[in-house]
Amino acid sequence: MRLVQESPEFVQTSLAGALCLGLEKGRFMPKSECHCLNLLLTYGSGCTASCSYCGLSKNRQEESSKTFIRVKWPVYSLQEIIDRVRTGKHPFKRVCISMITQGRAVEDTCLLIRQVREDTPLPVSVLIAPTVMKRKQDLSRFKAVGADRVGVAIDAATEELFVQHRGAGVSGPHHWDHFWNTLEDAVEIFGPYQVGIHLIVGLGETEAEIVKVIAKAHRMGALTHLFSFYPESGSLMQDCPPPDLGQYRRVQIARYLINEGLADLKDFHFSAQEQIVDFGKDITPYIHQGEAFMTSGCPGEDGQVACNRPFGNERASDPLRNYPFLPEAEDLKIILPQIWNGVK
Amino acid sequence: MAELSAVQKAWEIRQRFQPEIWFSAPSAKHYENRYYSNHNHYFVNLSVTGEACACRCDHCNGKLLQSMIATPSPLEMRRVIDRLQDMGCRGILVSGGANSQGEVPLLPFLDSLAYASRKGLKVLVHSGIINQETARGLKAAHVDQVLMDVIGDRDTIQQVYHLDQRPEDYLRAMLFCREANLNIAPHVVIGLHYGQIRGEIKALEMIRQAQPETIVAVILTPSSGTVMEGLKPPALAAVAEVIAQARIMNPDIPLTLGCARPAGQYKRAIEIRAVDCGVNGIAYPHEATIAYAQNKGLQTVFTEECCSLIGRKV
Question: Looking at the domain covering B6-312, what would its CATH class be?
Fold first, then answer.
């Protein structure tokens, strides 16, 4: 009988994380180094949810060599990872503990946060699974054991899409209201803008719909971290295409302007197809600065983005959607012509 | 006992002030968030040269003038003042392009400035290097405060501002104002020398001698279409060190983080550091900064005047 390696003693980490710890062979280009160590809870029974786009979904068809976001997430003992982090030979500025929807997730997350905080100097975020949480009680516990930031993966921009992809539409356990209520509690407990939501562009929403949600979250005190949908083989959405690159760029710009307090949603203009046609002001200086096209994620203690998720949205040979570094002049030459692509 | 870092010392010194922090949001920029929403036309920027400027500094090239209301004649200025007052304006910041000596040509406008003052508007002037005659004239016109950049490095003055002046000329300009009994709010532009820290501490030393009403720290923010466009901003830690020194060197003078700062994450990160360094005010803060200040035990107060006027409130 094979011994199942499970949390809290074992965790999965991203291939990027494993490479940076020297646990897997391979190398990153220096600019694309991963600055956040992502630790994913792991259980033999897996995740009990069935989100249509996700590689961890229990509905997933492939049995062997499961991938998540197109790559393997190798399993290691937490102790081995912590020992490697303690050598200091790594580029990480933060650790993120990602929950999955599973009964033991809250307890194990508390144990993981505590151990990382006791044994390493890195700040800790938690990507929470609201469905298995007693909202304020569990959020307070995460804070008490040392987490300073929280992410809520809302993913879908409208309630309709949420139900379709994560709830009743896939016989999944997640509820839209519960996620938003948990977000509100998180802001209350962790503080405004210590909380972020994840949104995936390309699940069927319009640009107007996703931009409204970004603004709503911002008003509530939460930043937004964007992902560009990429079909995960074996998942229900395996044959769906990624969103149009122009669409993604426009939403990235909108996200940046709203989260940095640079523009107001009410000044945006949308086409009849609900695409952004105007941001209500001259955005040239902001897009030339480049940060709008960088991955948005939790920062390190220096205030700069740590969770830069290199190649989290595309294969290495595809155009970069989220730049894991600040785009430079030659990158901007590629990005700028993409912005208004596809606007009808 | 381990010695305190500059930032820690700065925070200690801040304890001499009331535990409150002023957040400015004058109407030059629309500012709206869960904490505050500013009004159009409350506090407006005017340019006495329209978009013209002889200096063409490497970080601006006259670009900043484009966002100001052009009032290139005294009559035009009075007309604009009347219109603005009808719209509820409370104050004006009068600036303009500089001549080849680095001076904003304010002398022809003294009567109009006095007019604004008589109408009950606060009048601030961003003067460039000011001479004695102009300083006395501004005082006679009842100008509330004079703002000016103070540069402590000769190479920076020559290469960035294309002027032949020396750092001492900035000290002299400040002293002319003080002799005329004018309130001043000198600005230190951190990273002005193409992103490097050069004359900032010398600038602070000169500023200390002039006993200003408020000291304003800003950060190099090159405009698009300039020689400096795309330049990396100065390192956060280095900027924090300068702000901390400003606090330490001037324990009793209100210090603010002004509106010129690179946008995005950098802006958020430096605002947090500025709170830690004990500034008394910040212009257009991100909401996360407001929450941070509150968590540090500071009462947060909003104003729609330029942050340089915070010196009067603190």
Answer: alpha beta
